[in-house]
Amino acid sequence: MAVATASASSSKAPSGDDAILLGDAEFRFLRDFVYEHLGISLGEHKRQLVQGRLARRLRALRLPDYAAYCEFLRSDPAGELGELASVISTNVTSFFREPHHYELMEKQLLPQWIKKKRSEGGRLRIWSAGCSTGEEPYAMAMVLAEVLEQCGASGMDAKILATDLSPQALDQARNGVYALDKLGGISEERRRRWMMRGAGEYEGYACVHPRLRELVTVQPLNLLHEWPMRGPFDAIFCRNVVIYFDQPTKQRLFSRYAALLSAGGYLFLGHSESLHGINEDFELVGRTAYRKRG
Questions:
Q1: 55-76: b or e for each residue (b if 16 or more CB lie within 10 Å)?
Q2: Interacting residues of 44 by C-beta distance below 8 A, sequence separation 6+
Q3: Helix segments in the chain, DSSP class H
């Protein structure tokens, strides 16, 4: 799509880059680009939000206006996609958010799966899709490591795949370092066991235990593009991700999840998300917990 360069639709006020205006043509381009590559629908009511958040990217890239940023996207869409996703989406996460999901995994699902896979020689796989800065997969890794020990199966082939599109979020997830005030969802017992408190320049921070790193693999992935993994997965966590997607995008995504889940595998969604009227491959079995039919 052709987009006008700096013109009446993209003017710059004299008070600095915070006052750069997002013009009609540029917003239309960004809206189409974001929907095509990220599956996120941006209504007109999001215009001011997009303008404000993208001002940071203009400064970082030393671009004069939004028309120049649109040209930049056209010249290297893949290279900027992660940064754009980071800017327009809100990465809100925490350790053990929506604890009922972890309780279901700990008390019921993981012991069942481990027992079955030990007898059959299978592997256990969990996917954190949209892992953000890593709190979700590392919380799951704490639970997984503990249940494996309880079942006498610490040597089992069990892994958690954590994926996201945001480069900044992925960097923190790989580092596994978190400010102490971000550990509120972790019990004191688990903090002592699984979080290593920093000293010196790392005072006020904690790092995840090496055992958790063994269980978690962090990789970049765009949920709308091709997926290199084959599965099957026993559980997929996709919480507070599809709130950004429209109905057709959700339908395609959930069908792809179903294809990668094992028979009776589980899909976990966020508290404000639902499969009702969207997908028939799953049945609701708990609070935003769905089991694959068949």
A1: bebbeeeebebbbbbbebbeee
A2: none
A3: 24-38, 47-61, 66-75, 77-88, 99-104, 110-120, 135-150, 167-175, 188-194, 210-215, 247-260
- What does DSSP assign to residue 197? E
pTM, two decimals, is 0.83
- Give the position of tokens 């600095």: 16
Q: Answer yes or no: is 240 within a domain.
A: yes
234 in helix, strand or coil?
A: strand
Interval 32-68: pLDDT, tens:
999 998 888 888 888 998 999 899 899 999 999 999 9
In the residue annotation, 53 being an active-site residue is answered as: yes
Q: How many CB atoms lie within 10 A of CB 102?
A: 21
- Catalytic annotation present for 164: yes
Query: In terms of domains, do 79 and 119 share one?
Result: no
Q: Which residue from 151, 131, 127 is spatially nearest to 241, judged by alpha carbons?
A: 131
Q: Give the 3-state secondary structure of 87-101.
A: HHCCCCCCCCCCHHH
Q: Which of 28, 47, 53, 97 is catalytic?
A: 53
Query: Within this chain, do residues 181 and 127 fall inside the same structural domain, yes or no?
Result: yes
Catalytic residue, from 31, 65, 125, 164: name it.
164
